[in-house]
Amino acid sequence: MLDNSNISSLLSGCRKNDRNSQKELYYLLRGFAMKICYRYTNAMEECEEIVNEGFVKLFKNIHQFDETRQEDTLLSLKGWFKRILINTCIDHYRKTNSSVNGHVLTHESETIADQGENGIDMLSYKEIIEAIRLLSPAYRAVFNLFVIEGLSHEEISQTLGISVGASKSNLSKARDNLRKLLQNKNIIKAYVSPPR
């Protein structure tokens, strides 16, 4: 693993548009970036496109990164880059789903029963992420921003250009759909390989 001086050297090279430094930083952060963007996309090609767009923004704005802000330069860089990637995912969502404004919050979506998630611990991280990726783009975006990124419904409303009610409704429906997807997967998994 690279230490702070190596990371600082890479950043210095990137600030000077040194292609070798950019390439090395790209390969250092590519897996990290793919994991973040994978949650927001339907296809691997789309994920790679967003990741590459994120790297373009990173290299374009690298001079704004303050590496002295935190003791661990790589950790600080990943946090800064994560924000760039999430904003790039949101921009991509807006571009590809500009006609989707979410759904109005209804009595039905407010009274969805919160069923116990029996057996969810049997599912792997990859299976859960795959289930999230099966959600519609509107539901997936709100779910990721609320549950994973910790944004409020007001922040999601401003970020995606939808009403607070639509954000709440999309989250409720995303959770219900995700619950059904995970339960179905768990039932299939239990059927295929019953407990011993």
Quickly list its features.
9 helices, 196 residues, disordered C terminus, 2 domains, mainly alpha, Arc Repressor Mutant, subunit A, Rna Polymerase Sigma Factor, Chain: A, 69% helix
Walkthrough of the structure:
With 196 residues, this protein is mainly α. It folds into 2 domains: 4-96, RNA polymerase sigma factor, region 2, helix turn helix motif (Rna Polymerase Sigma Factor, Chain: A); 107-192, Winged helix-like DNA-binding domain superfamily/Winged helix DNA-binding domain (Arc Repressor Mutant, subunit A, Orthogonal Bundle), CATH 1.10.10.10. Helix content is 69%, strand content 0%. The protein is elongated, with a radius of gyration of 20 Å. GO terms for molecular function: DNA binding; sigma factor activity. Belongs to the sigma-70 factor family. ECF subfamily. Residues 126-177 form the RNA polymerase sigma factor 70 region 4 type domain. Pfam families: Sigma70_r2 (PF04542), Sigma70_r4_2 (PF08281).
